[in-house]
Specification:
alpha+beta; 2 domains; four-stranded antiparallel beta sheet; 9 helices
Length: 239
């Protein structure tokens, strides 16, 4: 069994490691910041400690040979999945698709907590350093890769606000091999016209005038303002 002293040490280490990742997320103004990451890491660590201790206690006290020290800890994966989904859904409520990296970060922090709780402290420290490097340094590499292999466009649309019109726009985006990076509507759901800001990623370059012409040819789209976004300028502002 894990002693009380060792349990406290592991919880404190989980707090420190989770706080390191949380500090980076907080500095980027993400939804899941310092406190959230700390709570996820410490909670995961506690679940692992309790899971091991209960299994060992039942084995030595009652002789249960089928005690599984991973049973409680295994539920952390499902639980963190709901939390991670919440960070994405909260942004969808504001009509903006964001939060995937934050959700993945929470999942990774939960894994660190489990590793700490199991007693693999060196492995947990190395994993924390690697995750911190990915979150803080790889953002520049990711930006350069996207700038080289993908084109980013920012579009402002005014169109009819109904399901059929949204399907037409979605079909246009799909047919031109584009993906939606961010989506924000300035109107209520029952407004006759939808005033939309849209950021797209395209696999190949397309002329602005051509896209504007094709969009305006779609019945129901009233106005299109379209410009090629400068990658480095926006990235510097976000960092």
């Amino acid at each position: 069994m894990i002693s009380t002293e060792d349990s406290i040490i592991r919880l404190v280490i989980a707090l420190i490691l989770g706080g390191l990742i949380g500090y980076e997320r907080q500095s980027q103004n993400k939804a899941a910041g310092l406190r959230t990451n700390i709570l996820v890491c410490v909670g995961s660590c506690l679940c692992m400690i309790i899971s091991i201790n209960i299994a060992m206690d039942y084995y030595f006290t009652f002789g249960y040979n089928n005690s599984d020290p991973e049973r409680i800890a295994a539920q952390v994966v499902s639980g963190v999945g709901f939390i991670g989904a919440g960070t994405i859904l909260a942004n969808q409520k504001n009509r903006s698709v964001r939060g995937l990296t934050t959700a993945a970060g929470l999942w990774a922090v939960a894994a660190i907590g489990l590793v700490v709780g199991a007693g693999y402290l060196v492995l947990a420290i190395v994993a924390t350093v690697l995750i911190f490097v990915v979150l803080s340094l790889f953002i520049h590499f990711d930006t350069r890769m996207e700038a080289r292999f993908r084109k980013r466009y920012v579009m402002h649309l005014v169109m009819r606000n109904n399901v059929g019109q949204a399907r037409k726009l979605s079909a246009f985006i799909h047919d031109h091999h584009m993906n939606i990076k961010t989506f924000h509507s300035h109107n209520d759901d029952d407004a006759p016209l939808a005033d939309i800001d849209l950021e797209l990623k395209a696999e190949r370059y397309m002329d602005e005038a051509e896209i504007i012409s094709q969009l305006l040819a779609i019945k129901g789209i009233k106005k299109v303002t379209f410009q090629l976004e400068k990658e480095e300028k926006e990235e510097k502002q976000s960092v």
